[in-house]
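Figure 3 (text version): structure tokens given as input.
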């Protein structure tokens, strides 16, 4: 084989290797169901309608906005909850990481944010959340919500057993149940002490947050 032909063989082999590496490094696309779950969870939500007819509930605003959209390890959402007349002082700020561990199971892992109030209202400010970095997060171990499809119209799930530890108002652990549809999020968060007595959270049922802005 001539030097010229040998050189051509090496060049072709190199191109083939590069293509193979690129294909290997490329992350798989998220499933249509995981994309749908992320889309349904994204937006601005309100419990105003529920609060107007049931005095057990108050008007809460829930904001869930995508962050780090360039990442390929699932979907990341910045989450903020505040009483409607105190939007500047949210009582809960979290980051959710949505993944699909199995064909039928979806996980919403929960993270707290370092010095969260510096990001208050960031969901409504273009580019404001860009300064948030993954190393400012702390995972809430045991507090992931595991969901499954409920037909084609909903995703339902909860935390697992007593794995989500909580010290809020004397609690020992927290339990969360959710149901997510295209137009609303049902969320029932409760805290229990070591004797399994409820010490915080709604007692008659969960909050119904209607989507008001996509």
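Below: residues designed for each position.
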């Amino acid at each position: 084989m001539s030097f010229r032909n040998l050189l051509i063989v090496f060049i072709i082999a190199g191109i083939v290797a590069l293509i193979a590496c690129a294909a290997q490094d490329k992350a798989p696309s998220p499933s249509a169901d995981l994309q749908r779950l992320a889309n349904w969870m994204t937006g601005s939500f309100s419990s105003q309608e529920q609060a107007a007819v049931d005095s057990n509930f108050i008007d809460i605003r829930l904001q869930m906005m995508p962050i780090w959209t360039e990442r390929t390890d699932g979907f990341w959402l910045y989450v903020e909850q505040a009483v409607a007349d105190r939007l500047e002082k949210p009582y809960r700020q979290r980051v959710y990481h949505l993944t699909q561990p199995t064909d039928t199971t979806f996980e919403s892992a929960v993270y707290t944010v370092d010095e969260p109030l510096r990001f208050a209202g960031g969901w409504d400010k273009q580019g404001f959340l860009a300064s948030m970095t993954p190393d400012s997060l702390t995972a809430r171990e045991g507090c992931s919500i595991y969901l499954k499809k409920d037909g084609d119209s909903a995703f339902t799930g909860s935390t697992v057993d007593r794995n989500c530890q909580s010290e809020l108002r004397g609690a020992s652990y927290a339990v969360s149940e959710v149901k997510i549809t295209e137009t609303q999020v049902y969320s029932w968060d409760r805290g229990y002490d070591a004797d399994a007595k409820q010490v915080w959270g709604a007692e008659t049922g969960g909050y119904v947050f209607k989507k008001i802005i996509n």
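The domain at 29-213 is CATH 2.40.128.590 (Lipocalin).
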